[in-house]
Design brief:
By secondary structure, the chain is an alpha/beta fold. Helix content is about 20%, strand content about 25%. It is built from four helices and 19 strands. Strands 3-4-5-2-1-6-7-9-10 form a nine-stranded mixed beta sheet, with helices on both faces. A four-stranded antiparallel beta sheet has the order 12-19-17-14, with no helix packed on it. The protein has a four-stranded antiparallel beta sheet with strand order 16-15-13-18, with no helix packed on it. The longest helix is centred in the last third of the chain and has 20 residues, at about 245-265.
Length: about 260
């Protein structure tokens, strides 16, 4: 089984980490310190804030430094997450597999092939054979989760899938960079126009009436344009927790790509 390093602790990277662990691989999840991913009920993001964090029965715990990873992997209990410098993590872990789950919607993705023997890029910006060994489709549609050994994923279309008849209007994006503060939690009910958070001194209001499916962690520093709030107008609190359909299909594509490689070898 592989030593797998997943880059990006949002809902997609977390789903990939969860499924890789379930199939017997040793997994480390990496992100920046105090990441601002809003779908925290569908990811391991809260572990980066040293908070109890469980996703579908798997407990995640932050490694205080790259030197702690070997011990945590040998223990095999909690999923190690780390915000240590990436080069130090790679040196300490020596991954067989690297998966970039940042999903680079805008701009060029980095060349992963210098960082691990086998690399998988998720979504736009990756081209198989150029900056990753395999590319996984991340766009909604019949090809979602498909693995490409040649070619590239679809370009970012820009429009999310509708929930309860609402698309992009269910999101709130940071108008400016600053410190995100909130006293609310994922799954809380909100009314349209209610203040749910502040970025520095500027209020962030709910765009719709519903439940908070996405809410950036209190104390995270956000960049202008960052998605910080998502309201699900369907009002189903349970839908804010667990692995979602899209991340699950992408994670399955990762598992199938690794299995196909093992059969080939």
């Amino acid at each position: 089984m592989a030593r797998a390093l997943i880059l990006g602790a949002g809902d997609i990277g977390s789903a990939a980490a969860l499924r890789l662990r379930a199939t017997g691989h040793s997994v480390v999840l990496h992100d920046l310190p105090r990441p601002f991913h809003p779908r925290r009920g569908m990811s391991f993001t809260d572990a980066f804030f040293d908070e109890p964090c469980t996703l579908e029965g798997l407990f995640a715990k932050r490694a205080s430094g790259a030197e702690r990873l070997a011990k945590m992997l040998a223990c095999g209990g909690a999923l190690p997450v780390t915000d240590a410098e990436l080069g130090n993590v790679i040196a300490a872990m020596q991954p067989d597999l690297l998966v970039d789950a940042h999903v680079h919607k805008h701009g060029v993705a980095p060349d992963l092939r210098e960082r691990a023997p086998f690399t998988i890029g998720l979504g736009p910006g990756f081209q198989a054979g150029r900056n990753a060994d395999i590319v996984i489709e991340t766009a909604w549609g019949e090809t979602l989760g498909r693995a490409y050994r040649a070619g590239e994923a679809l370009v970012y279309a820009g429009e999310p899938r509708a929930l309860g008849g609402h698309g992009r209007e269910r999101y709130v994006y940071a108008a400016a960079a600053g410190l995100f503060r909130t006293t609310l939690a994922i799954g809380d009910a909100v009314q349209r126009g209610a203040v749910v958070a502040h970025i520095d001194d500027f209020p962030v209001t709910a765009p719709l009436t519903g439940i908070l499916r996405g809410l950036t962690h209190d104390g995270a520093r956000v960049c202008a344009g960052t998605k910080v709030v998502e309201v699900d107008p369907r009002g189903d609190r349970a839908a804010a927790f667990g692995v979602g359909e899209r991340p699950a299909r992408i994670a399955l594509g990762v598992i199938e790509a690794i299995a196909a490689l093992a059969e080939r070898d």
